[in-house]
Amino acid sequence: MKVVVLVKQTPDTAELPKVSAEDVRSGKIKATMVINPWDEFAVEEAILLGDRYDVESVAISMGSPDAVDALKHALAMGVGGAALIDSSALSGGDLWTTAAALAAAVKAQGADLVLTGKQSVDDNSGAVYAGVAAQLGWPMVSAVTKIVDISNGQITVERMVEGAQETISVPLPAVISVGKEINEPRYPSFMGIRKASKAVIPSTPAAELGIASGSGKTQWTNIRKPEERKTKCVIIEGATVEEKAAKLVDALLAEKVI
Amino acid sequence: MSVLVWIEQNQNGVVPNSFEVLGKAREIAAALGTQTVAAVLGDNASAAESVRPYGPDVVLAITGPVLANYRLSAYTAALRKAVEAVGATVVLTAATVRGREVAAMLASQLDAGYAPDAIDLRVENGRLVAVRSVYSNNILADVTFNSPVQVVSVRPRSFPMPEPGAPGGEVRTLDPGLSENDVKEKVLEVKSTDTGEISLTDASIIVSGGRGVAQDPAKGFALVAELASVLGAAVGASRAAVDAGYIPYKHQVGQTGKTVKPDLYIAAGISGAIQHLAGMGGSKVIVAINKDPEAPIFEKANYGIVGDLFQVLPALTAEFKKRLGK
Ligand SMILES: Cc1cc2nc3c(=O)[nH]c(=O)nc-3n(C[C@H](O)[C@H](O)[C@H](O)COP(=O)(O)OP(=O)(O)OC[C@H]3O[C@@H](n4cnc5c(N)ncnc54)[C@H](O)[C@@H]3O)c2cc1C
Ligand SMILES: Cc1cc2nc3c(=O)[nH]c(=O)nc-3n(C[C@H](O)[C@H](O)[C@H](O)COP(=O)(O)OP(=O)(O)OC[C@H]3O[C@@H](n4cnc5c(N)ncnc54)[C@H](O)[C@@H]3O)c2cc1C
């Protein structure tokens, strides 16, 4: 069984607050770039599936040539192979452009199962996997917290929605996005890192997968920083904890938030 | 033309966030000079009546045995039928797990522009504009569309809950024309995880605990829960508290947990790491209880008490009980 894991390279979450509107507009983000934290769960699950089934796993990323670092992280964790879709020459795309490119790459790999993260920590869509599934005409299950079983061409999973846990079975090939509850991503081993650093990762320009610029159905405009939270913290003073509590309750009742 | 809203239902009936979206949809429809259609899906049309007081022009009941339980492919197919039937140009859902996946799948299948988890909507020059909060609430962008159909999922609590009025709107029915063979997913089991607690994303007040409870985690979160209970609030937590096993993941607020937007957020024993702030920075009023006066949370808080949460929380609970007459 061939499993493709989709990984995106995203800014380190600790540095997101300093990303400027100009950075986002130009696409040149001045931050340390890492594998999207949500995608580590998908990578881990692909590796764990290898312990349970006969699995060949490949990580695929679309991005600039720098995105090979995210792929190397996946390799260092233990996926079998990696491939990059180079999108540097692509402009004017949107979610579905990304999805179309990834779907084409998945098809070229001959995958039976696609694993993805829940969402990216930069563009936050939580939608690319739906586009991949729609392009391929495959079933999709999102927010998966456990892969229960894969047999007879069916995959059975548990997933969480608000207020309920569902157990769902769909035929393969399928697209699955995973949630944080599914596993505990491993740290790459020293040997893994060494192996990954030597890996040569094939790169395909998006155009070769039939993806054209300007195909986006949406545009981002007026990219800006949200208004800074301008609060001056009022430290509640008092002789006793009871007095402080009473003063805070006064203040909150006056704010009309209770 | 019309603005179509998917009215999501779960085991407790209509998901209230759907009504927030419906309220805004009426404004958008008015600005576009068109109608609001509320789509109710299921094996029967019983939910239609509960939607009429929220004022859609039409309640479209799409019914059939195939739609008895929510399944992504069946619900997407039914909504496509609805889009066609009412000539929808704007489709809105609440950005719940199901609302987000159904909106994404529908948009992708229709090759329509999609704005996920939008925090605001407006009409400009006769066109829909959605506002998205991206980079984990560190960047805002306006999303404009160049597709005939525009799909948006709306973050819970972005719009006020409308007041129900006299039942209006006509109820129409639509046959989804689906058979069981058209649906790939089988739902083998649905287990309720609903413990009657208020959910974080719906809460107007949240009381959260962090690693500051470490000296006695069970007691610490019991104190958090007691204050929450007096305030009718939901219980939240930092990742450090979740990772340490003090409380389940579903309570986690932040970057890799839930984004929340309550009127009041009380953080006890939480330092205020960037990844925590990413999830609750949009709260109206923030209160920090921390024994370290230098903790970064105080920079974002409106009110702070420097002190031991094991003393401050019970004092607050007692004081609120007194004032609220509980
Ligand atoms: C300047 C700028 C302008 C933009 N303009 C638009 C616009 O006009 N319209 C629009 O829709 N979007 C726009 N985008 C967003 C861009 O198209 C998205 O980054 C892209 O579509 C992926 O969305 P996401 O990161 O939110 O993925 P999500 O849907 O959040 O990702 C879900 C999962 O899919 C997989 N995945 C996502 N992206 C990749 C990838 N590149 N490679 C491998 N796996 C991946 C991962 O497993 C991930 O966890 C813009 C971005 C920038 C910086
Ligand atoms: C990729 C990534 C994603 C992340 N996602 C999230 C996320 O979703 N949510 C999240 O919260 N974090 C997240 N984090 C972790 C985040 O960086 C912090 O580690 C975490 O928020 C710290 O939790 P804390 O404030 O409870 O603990 P600490 O930082 O240890 O703070 C504990 C605080 O309690 C105070 N304290 C101690 N004892 C008492 C007492 N008796 N009374 C009062 N105060 C006391 C201390 O002064 C201190 O300020 C993420 C990190 C990464 C790298």
| Proportion of residues in extended strands of chain A | 25-35%
Give the class-level CATH name of chain A: Alpha Beta
The appropriate CATH architecture of chain A is 3-Layer(aba) Sandwich
- Cα gyration radius of chain B (Å): 22 Å
Low-confidence stretches of chain B: none
Helix/strand structural class of chain B: alpha/beta
How would you write the strand order of the largest sheet of chain A? 9-8-7-10-6-1-4-5-11
Tell me, what is the CATH class of the largest domain in chain B? Answer: Alpha Beta
Termini distance of chain B? 51 Å
Number of helices of chain B: 9
- State the oligomer: heterodimer
Helix-strand string of chain A: EEHEHEHEHEHEEEEHEEEH
Question: What are the defining features of this structure?
Answer:
heterodimer; A: 258 residues; alpha/beta; nine-stranded mixed beta sheet; 7 helices; B: 326 residues; Rossmann fold; 2 domains; seven-stranded parallel beta sheet; five-stranded parallel beta sheet; 18 strands
Question: What does it look like?
Answer:
The complex is a heterodimer of chains A (258) and B (326). Chain A is an alpha/beta fold and 258 residues long. Helices cover 31% and strands 29% of the residues of chain A. Chain A has seven helices and 13 strands. In chain A, helix 3 (68-77) links the parallel strand 4 and strand 5. Chain A is globular, with a radius of gyration of 22 Å. Chain B has two domains: 2-182, Rossmann fold; 205-324, TPP-binding domain (Rossmann fold, 3-Layer(aba) Sandwich), CATH 3.40.50.1220. Chain B is built from nine helices and 18 strands. In chain B, the strands form four sheets. Chain B has a seven-stranded parallel sheet, with helices on both faces. In chain B, strands 15-14-16-17-18 form a five-stranded parallel sheet. Chain B has a three-stranded antiparallel sheet with strand order 8-9-10. In chain B, helix 3 packs across helix 4 and helix 5 (217-231) packs parallel to helix 9 (309-323). The longest helix of chain B is centred in the N-terminal third of the chain and has 16 residues, at 17-32. At the A-B interface, helix 4, helix 5, strand 7, strand 8 and strand 9 of A face helix 4, strand 7, strand 9, strand 10 and strand 13 of B. One flavin-adenine dinucleotide binds next to helix 1, helix 2, strand 4, helix 4 and helix 5 of chain A.
